[in-house]
């Protein structure tokens, strides 16, 4: 076999091995992510580090998102957050409802995925810019929600865009509009 063909096949096998998993979720649905090791640069690599959870730069903020393994709009929101500079740990689960209940997300605020970041809860397709503002301002709230799945929100891009609000909510049930898009 020619050397360049052998090298190309070897590279392809290494790339394939990095992307193949056994198809099982990384962690139990109610588990919190736990670091397994730190790289030489100080980055923490999750125990289940896969192509879906790239190593983050030391200065990025980690978002942990609980989502259905088959949801395309959840994957698109994860991509949106990564493109905005967040390190995202995606945890696939068959039922996100226990996560929502654990973090105080009311049924009428619910969407398709729930995330945590910096001590806050993010429900649904919250834009990365609003998450950055949340982390900068640090308001006394539980989190932000984009109820439902409005067209035009991050991960729900399409031929039309609906107006939608990003709702801030607290433990007492109080709500306010954090941002309008």
Explain how this protein is built:
Mean pLDDT is 76; it is low at 1-58. By secondary structure, this protein is of the alpha+beta class. The strands form 2 sheets. Strands 4-3-5-6-7-8-9 form a 7-stranded mixed beta sheet, covered by helices on one side. Strands 1-2 form a two-stranded antiparallel ribbon. The chain is globular. The protein is built from 4 helices and 9 strands. The protein has one domain (23-180).
Order of helices and strands: HEEEHEHEEHEEE
- Characterize the quaternary organization of these chains: single chain
Shape: globular
**Class from helix and strand fractions:** alpha+beta
Q: Give the domain tally.
A: 1
Classify the helix fraction into a percent range: 10-25%
Sequence stretches where pLDDT stays below 50 over 5 or more residues = 1-58
- Strands side by side in the biggest sheet: 4-3-5-6-7-8-9
In whole angstroms, the N-to-C terminal distance is 58 Å
Q: How many β strands by DSSP? A: 9
Radius of gyration, CA atoms, in whole angstroms:
18 Å
Sketch the major β-sheet: 7 strands, mixed
Provide a count of the helices.
4
Mean pLDDT across residues: 76
Strand content: 15-25%
């Amino acid at each position: 076999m020619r050397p360049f063909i052998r090298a190309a096949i070897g590279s392809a096998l290494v790339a394939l091995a990095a992307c193949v998993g056994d198809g099982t979720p990384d962690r139990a649905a109610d588990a919190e992510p736990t670091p397994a090791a730190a790289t030489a640069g100080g980055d923490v690599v999750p125990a289940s580090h896969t192509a879906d959870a790239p190593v983050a730069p030391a200065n990025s903020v980690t978002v942990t998102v609980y989502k259905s393994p088959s949801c395309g709009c959840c994957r698109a929101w994860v991509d949106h957050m990564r493109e905005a500079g967040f390190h995202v740990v995606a945890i696939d689960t068959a039922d996100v409802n226990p996560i929502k209940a654990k973090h105080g997300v009311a049924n009428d605020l619910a969407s398709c995925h729930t995330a945590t970041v910096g001590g806050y809860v993010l429900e649904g397709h919250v834009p990365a810019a609003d998450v950055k503002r949340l982390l900068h301002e640090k308001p006394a709230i539980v989190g932000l929600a984009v109820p439902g799945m409005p067209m035009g929100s991050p991960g729900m891009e399409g031929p039309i865009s609906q107006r939608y609000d990003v709702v801030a909510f607290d433990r007492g049930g109080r709500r306010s509009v954090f941002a309008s898009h």
